[in-house]
Write a structure and sequence with these properties.
With 328 residues, the chain is α+β, with helices and mostly antiparallel strands. It contains eleven helices and twelve strands.
């Protein structure tokens, strides 16, 4: 069966409601990107959702523009330039101009997907060559791309103040995230922690919630995690790059940096709260991670300077922070 669409005066396209709905609209041009290295912008052509009965097919057709397609429901086969790719729910495809693609929708169940057709103006030199762009990504539960797509649809339908700039930025982030693979998001609840680390952090949270953030011996940490000291060391090093005692020391220093930045507490009081025996020991430990003393750190922030970057060891350990202080 062939389904035809027609542009309406309102800018909407009418299609059979049980199959497909879409929107087409003109997009105002002339919005330049703020970053010197990202000098491309998008011409949005159409978007929408589609629902297909079992056994449906589409294509092959040749692309004249770019198309993002993400599978919401169904086990789909995505064919591009004669090669087939499995595309179950959670898959996101990006077809490019000149490609020839087709979709074999789920033979047993209905298939549901969303899509964007768009053009790109300007150069994408800041990104890898398009010949190296992936065709398909499997998105996790917490990807940033699908929320960006839903935000784009909301912008197109509501056209709030500044919607064009927001739409350009959202699609730019979605495209770069897809091309580079940087589409994950951080969880607030620490749900992705290794079970051993989860048990460890529950014990640490209980101690630090009722008193100073004291250093905890490795033997106590291993007992709380119900594993040997050797096993605990291995799990932490694989997950965070440092052992358990060092991980907690870095967490204490991260907390100290937050207190320096967001409270008026005296440095000696922050040292005591984060479990350091003296301001001297605290200052030495803090300088080793942040490259400056606590007082200098606070002065830099007060002056409007950028926050000093911590040592690279701190970056991976910070994922534990929300687990410790999530209920504050």
């Amino acid at each position: 069966m062939v389904w035809e669409t027609a542009r309406l005066a309102s800018g909407f396209v009418r299609t059979p409601s049980d199959l497909h709905f879409t929107t087409q609209f003109p997009f105002e041009h002339g919005i330049s990107m703020s970053a010197d290295t990202l000098r491309f912008r998008f011409n949005f052509e159409s978007y929408g959702f589609a629902l297909y009965p079992p056994g449906s097919t589409f294509g092959p057709v040749s692309l004249r523009d770019y198309e993002f397609v993400w599978i919401i429901e169904g086990n789909v086969a995505y064919e591009c330039n004669g090669k087939s790719h499995p595309a179950p729910a959670g898959s996101l495809m990006l077809s490019r101009p000149g490609m020839r693609h087709a979709f074999i929708w789920d033979p047993q169940h209905q298939s549901h997907h969303g899509y964007f057709h768009f053009g790109i103006e300007g150069d994408c030199d800041a990104l890898p060559p398009q010949s190296r762009w992936p065709l398909l990504r499997r998105l996790g539960e917490d990807d940033i791309i699908r929320p960006l797509f839903h935000h784009l649809m909301w912008l197109f339908e509501n056209r709030c103040d500044g919607w064009q700039d927001l739409a350009q930025g959202a699609m730019r982030q979605a495209l770069i995230a897809f091309v580079t693979g940087g589409f994950g998001t951080a969880r607030d609840d620490g749900a992705d922690l290794h079970p051993t680390i989860e048990r460890l952090m529950a014990h640490v949270q209980g101690i630090w919630a009722v008193g100073p953030m004291r250093s905890i011996p490795l033997s106590e940490l291993a007992s709380a995690a119900d594993v040997s000291q050797r096993h605990l060391n291995r799990v932490l090093r694989e997950a965070l790059g440092v052992g358990p005692v060092e991980a907690l020391r870095l967490l204490r220093l991260s907390r100290a940096a937050t207190l320096l930045a967001r409270t008026n507490h005296r440095v000696q009081d922050i040292a005591a709260q984060t479990g350091f025996d003296s301001p001297f020991h605290f200052s030495r430990a803090f300088s080793g991670v942040y490259g400056c003393s606590p007082r200098a750190f606070r002065k830099l922030l007060d002056s409007g300077a950028d926050t000093p970057s911590p040592h690279r060891r701190m970056v991976r350990v910070r994922k534990l922070s929300s687990r410790i202080w999530q209920r504050e």
